[in-house]
Amino acid sequence: MAITTAMSTSFKAELMQSAHCFNGPVTTTCTLHTSNVVDTVVSMVGVASGMTVTGTGTAANSSVVSITSNVAFVIYPAATSTGAQSLTFTGNVFKIALIKTGMAGTYGAASVNYTDITGNTDETTGAGYTATGVAMVNVTPVVSGTTAYTNFSPNPTWTSASFSTAGCMIYNSSLGLGGTSGTNTSGGGRCCGVFDFGGTQTVTSGTFTVVMPAATSSTAILRIA
Amino acid sequence: MAVILATDFGPHPPSTYAQATADQICPIDASLMGDQRIKAEQLRSAIAERMMPLFTRLQEAERENLTGDNLEHILSEHDANDISDEAVLEIQQAAENTDWGQHYKRGEVIEAIKFELARMFVTAQHVERLWHADRNPDHEQAQQYRRRYHQPIEENNGSLISESNMNPLSLNQ
């Protein structure tokens, strides 16, 4: 079958449902109170509901529940200590999974979920490649003119790699929206887009890197015009 | 337009990064013909040439840091600020006395190319760290670094540069 480079149609709707957070990591100083309230935040720029929170005094798997003012937010689970701390906020984890050559499925705008790939047993296999692909580091979306775009850095890379691939899917591995997504009943793995590599790409005991297009309003990997 | 970098039997060499970087920051419009096209291609080659020693230096420095006593280095933030500034100056010098000399001195252009340079330098550091992790399976910090990127999600759920047609996406496509 085939891969046609396209933004997933379901992704467009999910953006309007607040299902994807592309914000890059931001660190700022806040005051914790051994409760769900965090205040005197030095800067709320780049902080959004649903972002994960890490830092001294936070519990495992903490996230921002809601933003209550320009200097305060609610965290869950409750902070484990009191006092000023430097906290880091991280958006959703987006991953890039590679699609094998000679794939059984058809991938394009109608692709909905990472499980579209696994359901067809179409994920690349080989040395250096772990199923589900690699996690990328978000670069907070920006605007140029009337176009918003986002990016990732560093470029996704596989080392000690021996495999062939024909394309990839960028998807959100975080659970940001409930309900079923394609064949995935957990809501995770929501597809952002699929990309054709223009032919078979092969690497042998080496390094495989997908270089993201330049981060501009006309070329960035994911853009809303 | 994105490119796939595939290098057999090891990390990408500096020449691969240098060429990919030059391609990224010196795009040549398909409509450019004749002498102008030749000049643009010469500029792109000159930029690639000037990037090569920078990638060589960065790669060597990263390897030295990884093999030193500081086991925590691999978990430190990627740092490409200084070398990116240096690279911007190299690009401006390469473009001096060409039709694009002023272009590479514009504030918004400098900002854009600095991002691309930093991303490629950081990628080179990232590749070195991943290889270090591959070669040191008992090195806890190295494995921690690898897991940041290469960990399955909890599912509840000689170098080759080849162009692909991995076109950027737009909602209004």
Looking at this protein, list some descriptive labels:
heterodimer; A: 225 residues; mainly beta; Elongation Factor Tu (Ef-tu), domain 3; 2 domains; 6-stranded antiparallel beta barrel; 5-stranded antiparallel beta sheet; 14 strands; B: 173 residues; mainly alpha; 5 helices; 3 strands; elongated
How many DSSP H or I helices of chain A?
A: 2
> Total strand count of chain B, please?
3
Helix content of chain B: 55-70%
Number of helices of chain B: 5
The gross shape of chain B turns out to be: elongated
**Oligomeric status:** heterodimer
Percentage of helical residues of chain A? Answer: under 10%
Largest sheet of chain B: 2 strands, antiparallel
Bulk shape of chain A: elongated
Written as H for each helix and E for each strand, in order along the chain, the element string of chain B is EHHHHHEE
Describe this structure as you would to a colleague:
- The complex is a heterodimer of chains A (225) and B (173).
- With 225 residues, chain A is mainly β.
- Helices cover 6% and strands 43% of the residues of chain A.
- In chain A, the strands form three sheets. Chain A has a six-stranded antiparallel barrel with strand order 2-3-6-5-4-7. In chain A, strands 1-13-12-8-9 form a five-stranded antiparallel β-sheet. In chain A, strands 10-11-14 form a three-stranded antiparallel β-sheet, with no helix packed on it.
- In chain A, strand 10 and strand 11 (147-152) form a beta hairpin.
- The two termini of chain A are 30 Å apart.
- Chain B contains five helices and three strands, in the order βαααααββ.
- Helices cover 58% and strands 6% of the residues of chain B.
- A two-stranded antiparallel ribbon of chain B has the order 1-2.
- In chain B, helix 4 (107-135) crosses helix 5 (140-149).
- Classes of the chains: A mainly beta (225), B mainly alpha (173).
- The interface between A and B is large, with 61 and 52 residues.
